[in-house]
Amino acid sequence: MKRFIESVPGWLRSTAPMHGVRSAVAGATAGIKAIMRHGLSAAGVVGIAAFGVLYFNPHLAEDVIALSPFSAEESVADEGATVAAASTSAATLAVAAPQPATPKPIAAVAPLAAAPAANSMLADTTKQLESRAAKPAPAHPEQQRVTSWIAKRYRVATDAATMLVGATYTTAREIHLDPLLILAVIAIESRFNPFAESPVGAKGLMQVMANVHRDKFQPLGGVQAALNPVANIKVGSRILKDYVNRTGSLEGGLKMYVGAAASDTDSGYGSKVIAEYHKLKEVAQGAAKPAVKPVTAPAKPPQEARNESEERALPEPV
């Protein structure tokens, strides 16, 4: 204990210098903190004051920005971007803009202007070519007379009659059958109504049984083509020729065509077709005048008998 008490003064003397250093370091640190705190406060006050001055004086802000060393680089970059955008816009406009049409040489027009006679001749030639392209070649006088007579007798539009008669003559040349006989059958069967249809399914100008003669309509678009005038004429004409060849006579072929092959009589159908045929021959030769009174639809055998006869008929060649 005595030794401890005697060592206290020595310990105090050894630790005194260290305590002074610590006190000095603590004081310096506190001073630096105080200086930084006051400096930051002053910088904040100055910054607020500068912001207020620049807010109320925009021109002064531009001058300050101009003094910055980074302003030159930014201006150069902005100019480069502007030039690039301008070049891109110019290229886009060059692509999107329509190319101007090549002007026609004026020298080529001068001779026409100086020569009105040649210009008029050229215009007349152009009109003639256009009219020839727009209108078909004129039909034979015989065909024209037949067309006019049918249009007036059956009250068919002239253009429609021209089309129907033309299609009939074309088909007749293909299958080597008299076109006037085909027109006579059309007159008696449907009176040139391409949309005529019987209760048992006979359709079109020549009243063809589309379901029975399905194979004949197949190359022309199927049974839906039965109401097509041209297709109906083609199929009906081939059936008529085949029936005439089978029976060996026109009367027998007409009787088979109307569906009365198994009957004793055709109820006058054949005689009416033949009478119409002779009338058309007189018209074609120019010996008959157009009639203004349309013919009445002839009485036919029961459609059921015709349907059964068509179904019993042997398959005809296409």
In short:
This protein has helices at 2-56, 58-66, 71-96, 110-114, 116-134, 141-153, 158-175, 179-190, 214-217, 229-247, 250-257, 269-284, 303-312, and strands spanning 202-203, 208-209. Helices cover 67% and strands 1% of the residues.
Explain this structure:
With 318 residues, the chain is mostly helical. Among the domains are: 25-64; 141-312, Lysozyme (Orthogonal Bundle), CATH 1.10.530.10. The chain is 67% helix and 1% strand. The protein has 13 helices and two strands; from the N terminus they run ααααααααββααααα. Strands 1-2 form a two-stranded antiparallel sheet. β1 (202-203) and β2 form a beta hairpin. The N and C termini lie far apart (147 Å).
Please tell me the CATH architecture of the domain at 141-312 by its name.
Answer: Orthogonal Bundle
Percent of residues in β-strands: under 5%
How many β-strand runs? 2
For the record, the CATH class of the domain at 141-312 is Mainly Alpha
| Major pleated sheet | 2 strands, antiparallel
Count of alpha and pi helical runs:
13
